[in-house]
């Protein structure tokens, strides 16, 4: 069998016609009773077995599939009287205002209608947005006409009293239009006129916005649940549909028995209320439909809209496996590429590793450690795909049985790559790859330099961590998403990662020409920065050996690196035009030596384009930039920690 391949070009939305609802329905719903005395679903009821199979072992009477494969099937309710679809009330109002109350034509001269139709046809092909604008213009223009140019009928103002009541303001006073009158008026509209009112007559005739047949969703959409007490609890939609069927059958009986019009109107209004609250139970000016216990029922609209709704809650945002979420804490001692992961999370999350002749002994150690001891393993998967939970298995026997071709779900360990994300994810750098560093504690640890891309702070922010499952995903994360590859931001054209707060204060004070360091200070600062080379000659030899902060910074710069720029302090009386300025605010780096100037926010700060770090990355790549961020910046933090940065009451006292 050869399958023909086709490409989806467009999706068109429309309104279900009464005939289409009947065609896709497998049964008419005629009773509000759900189950008989034996607890079996009633034929023609809302839990009719023809609507789909959801219980294990049950076979669908419509498609013959079991609960796993049955897609569910629609039913329908034949309404005794039409009711307004509350979702289309505004569209109905617009159409009624623009069309004649007698002949149904648009309230514009025929030649004008034809001109607009030709224009609409041209616009729809090339400029769909302009076509929509034309429809709006036609509606507004027609709504102002007081006499029909086609039949001469005088037009009255149609008022919509939300959510679904329509009135006509006649000379004798305001008269309510019932849904049957509204539908009759909409039926008179021609297909050409409907097109000019923004409706495609093949997909959405105007009268279809007034319901005469109500589709009943499959049981899959509204499954019942059995409580611990054995009582069956029905879905909110089923409760509302039962109210609709009950009221509809009562209205039909009243119509057939020739009951007084007032009684018929009362039940008609009640049917309209039930259908409206079934669609949307948060409508203005009408009471909310509630359970007997007082809890508001969830209508179809409530299922879809809002934070907990289908789109935001289940489609845009999903719960996923192999992920973790907890509070973040600062840690200036880990690399910008790393994330500190609590041991408890490292033991819960796992990485699937294939057993090979080269790693079998390591995998055996993990299996013996089991889920409780880190680094261990949670599961073992055999060649035939059987998953063994190591919490309940004989770990010693499993370790002996281990052979190439099996898989071990081992704990997260140092060096694994993970994705780290902070919501709201507003740009590319809101999710980046980090390398795991397992640490004690209960919070994720993040280097402070990486806060700007995530817009993170440490006042209780939480972040998400995801473990890539396949080797391809891990390789992509490591090669494309690692933090160091996103230091340069397209937003600033410069580094988004960089010094802030204590880093800048430390760098400024350390590189100030007033700062002189003893040998003890130099060793302490260079040790904090992970420097393993030789200490340079002191800048001052007598009476005591003293080093400058500029000398220490120079140890971390490439020997061929040159840079000239002004520090942020270079303004006003501190303005420097060349490196010989006594204010020391003109930065000069020659052949890797910081000769003049102080490093401040403009030189090493985050979100500062064309600064020193920007040129280092451009000239020497992201690996060197990471080395500078991980080492030189630790020296700045250590210096401010040693020196202190205090304030007094005078600093905050008002003059």
Brief overview, please?
With 655 residues, this protein is an alpha+beta fold.
Describe this structure in words.
It catalyses: RNA(n) + a ribonucleoside 5'-triphosphate = RNA(n+1) + diphosphate. Residues 207-511 form the RNA polymerase N-terminal domain. This protein has 655 residues and is of the alpha+beta class. The strands form 8 sheets. It has a 6-stranded mixed beta sheet with strand order 10-16-15-18-9-17. Strands 11-14-12-13 form a 4-stranded antiparallel beta sheet. Helix 7 (236-257) runs antiparallel to helix 8 (261-279) and helix 12 (360-369) runs antiparallel to helix 13. The mean pLDDT is 89.
């Amino acid at each position: 069998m050869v399958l023909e391949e086709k490409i989806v070009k467009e999706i068109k939305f429309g309104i279900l016609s009464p005939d289409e609802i009947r065609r896709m329905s497998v049964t008419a719903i005629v009773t509000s009773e759900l189950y008989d005395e034996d607890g079996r679903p009633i034929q023609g009821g809302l839990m009719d077995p023809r609507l789909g199979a959801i219980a294990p072992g049950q076979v669908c009477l419509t498609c013959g599939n079991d609960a796993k494969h049955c897609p569910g099937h629609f039913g329908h309710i034949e309404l005794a009287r039409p009711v307004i679809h509350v979702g289309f009330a505004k569209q109905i109002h617009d159409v009624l205002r623009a069309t004649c109350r007698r002949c149904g034509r648009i309230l514009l001269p025929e030649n004008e209608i034809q001109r607009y139709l030709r224009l609409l046809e041209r616009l729809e092909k090339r400029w769909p947005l302009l076509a929509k604008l034309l429809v709006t213009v036609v509606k507004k223009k027609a709504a102002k006409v007081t006499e029909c140019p086609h039949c001469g009928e005088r037009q009255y103002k149609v008022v919509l009293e939300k959510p679904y009541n329509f009135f006509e303001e006649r000379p004798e006073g305001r008269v309510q239009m019932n849904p049957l009158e509204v539908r009759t008026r909409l039926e008179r509209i021609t297909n050409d006129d409907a097109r000019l009112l923004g409706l495609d007559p093949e997909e959405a005739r105007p009268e279809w916005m007034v319901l005469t047949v109500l589709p009943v969703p499959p049981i899959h959409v509204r499954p019942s649940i059995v409580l611990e007490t054995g009582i069956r609890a029905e879905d909110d939609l089923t409760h509302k549909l039962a109210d609709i069927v009950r009221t509809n059958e009562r209205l039909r009986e009243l119509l057939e028995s020739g009951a007084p019009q007032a009684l018929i109107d009362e039940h008609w209004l009640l049917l309209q209320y039930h259908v409206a609250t079934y669609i949307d139970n948060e409508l203005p000016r009408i009471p909310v439909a509630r359970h007997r216990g007082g809890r508001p029922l969830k209508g179809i609209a409530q299922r879809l809209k809002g934070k907990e709704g289908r789109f935001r809650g289940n489609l845009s945002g999903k719960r996923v496996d192999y992920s973790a979420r907890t509070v973040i804490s600062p840690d200036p001692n880990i690399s910008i590429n790393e994330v500190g992961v609590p041991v408890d999370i490292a033991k819960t999350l796992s990485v699937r590793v294939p057993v090979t002749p080269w790693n079998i002994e390591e995998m055996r150690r993990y299996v013996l450690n089991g889920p409780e001891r880190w680094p261990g393993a949670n599961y073992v998967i055999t060649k035939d795909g059987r998953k063994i939970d190591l919490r309940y298995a004989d770990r010693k026997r499993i370790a002996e049985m281990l052979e190439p071709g099996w898989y071990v779900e081992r704990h997260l360990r140092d060096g694994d790559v993970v994705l780290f994300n902070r919501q709201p994810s507003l740009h590319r750098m809101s999710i980046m790859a980090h390398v795991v560093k397992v640490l004690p504690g209960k919070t994720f640890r993040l280097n402070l330099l990486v806060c700007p891309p995530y817009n993170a702070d440490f006042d209780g922010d939480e972040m998400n961590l995801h473990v890539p499952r396949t080797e391809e995903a891990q390789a992509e994360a490591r090669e494309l998403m690692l933090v160091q590859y996103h230091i340069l931001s397209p937003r600033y054209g410069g580094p988004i990662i960089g010094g802030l707060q204590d880093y800048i204060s430390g760098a400024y004070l350390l590189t100030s020409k007033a700062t002189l360091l003893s040998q003890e200070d130099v060793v302490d600062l260079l040790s904090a920065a992970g420097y393993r080379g030789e200490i340079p000659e002191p800048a001052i030899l007598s009476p005591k050996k003293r080093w400058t902060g500029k000398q220490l910074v120079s140890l971390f710069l490439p020997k061929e690196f040159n840079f000239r720029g002004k520090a942020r302090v270079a303004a006003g009386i501190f303005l420097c035009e060349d490196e010989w300025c006594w204010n020391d605010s003109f930065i000069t780096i020659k052949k890797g030596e910081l000769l003049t100037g102080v490093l401040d926010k403009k030189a090493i700060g985050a979100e500062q384009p064309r600064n020193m770090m920007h040129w280092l990355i451009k000239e020497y790549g992201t690996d060197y930039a990471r080395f500078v961020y991980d080492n030189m910046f630790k020296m700045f933090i250590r210096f401010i920690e040693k020196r202190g940065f205090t304030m007094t009451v005078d600093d905050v006292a008002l003059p």
